[in-house]
Amino acid sequence: MKVRALQYVVLVGVAAVFLGPLYWLVSTAFKESAEIYQWPPAWWPDHFTWENFALAWKAAPFDRFFVNSTVITVAGTALKVTNAVLTAYAFAYLRFPGKKVLFFLVLGAMMVPGHVTLLPNYLTVATLGWINTYAGLIIPGIGSAFATFLMRQHFLTLPSEVTDAAAVDGAGHLRTLWRVVLPMSRPMLVTVVVITAVEEWNNFVWPLIVTNTASMRTLPVGLLILKDEEGLANWGTIMAGTLLVLAPMLLIFLIAQRYIVGGITQGALKG
């Protein structure tokens, strides 16, 4: 009984560490300016106000930012997941020279910090004339070593009898992938889609570098506009803007969470 009580105490403490900042963000978004700066701090707004959201929406073209983020997230996720699935299928089921070497290179790519590729990608995009375009925002990021690794490891856990039966029936690789492998991989596929979508939606550095007009900015970059030129901040407005950015991905995560726990662990240990 004592052990169980201790477990609950630890779980509540861990939850407080992760949920505390989120709670403070939400409560601050609905506070008036006087409540935000008062001491001791007000943990709950005395008077709920929607003014911060209106100010955030008017301070920057958030409608355009939302469209840009949506286009980049949908297109980027679709291309990245498609690329990862096809590559993972090749590593799991096809035989070709240098297969192991190429897979180790994919694993090595997971160890390279993303910021290392910023300059080469920027120079490439600038040479192609893709600065301030959707192509420049999306195309350089369509390869994902992590997504490829997760899908490949999962494919290896599927019973070989099923794919062998599809081959006997005359199914080609694309038909086998679409009709047999992917339906059996739904939890992992949803997991990869959610992880990729969150990564695309929250991407800040690359959109900041490769765009130079407000019409092509994304939501994370748009949050910078909520600060005035002197560096003073209206934290109620900033928190409201942050909540607007956070809400879509939080909703997607809540809808797909039942797939994620099972999907992220499937095949993790099989080589």
TrEMBL record:
How does this protein sit in the membrane?
Answer: Multi-pass membrane protein
Q: What is the lineage of its organism?
A: Bacteria, Bacillati, Actinomycetota, Actinomycetes, Propionibacteriales
Q: What is this protein called?
A: Carbohydrate ABC transporter permease
Transmembrane regions: 5-26, 71-94, 101-123, 129-150, 238-260
Span of domain ABC transmembrane type-1: 66-256
Entry's InterPro entries?
MetI-like (IPR000515), MetI-like_sf (IPR035906)
- UniProt cross-references to SUPFAM superfamilies, sorted A to Z: MetI-like
* Record family assignment: Belongs to the binding-protein-dependent transport system permease family.
* Major localisation: membrane
Report the locations given in the UniProt record. Answer: Cell membrane
Which CDD domains does the record match to this protein? TM_PBP2 (cd06261)
What Gene3D superfamilies would the database entry show?
MetI-like
Q: Name one Pfam family in it.
A: BPD_transp_1
Q: Which UniProt keywords apply?
A: Cell membrane, Membrane, Transmembrane, Transmembrane helix, Transport
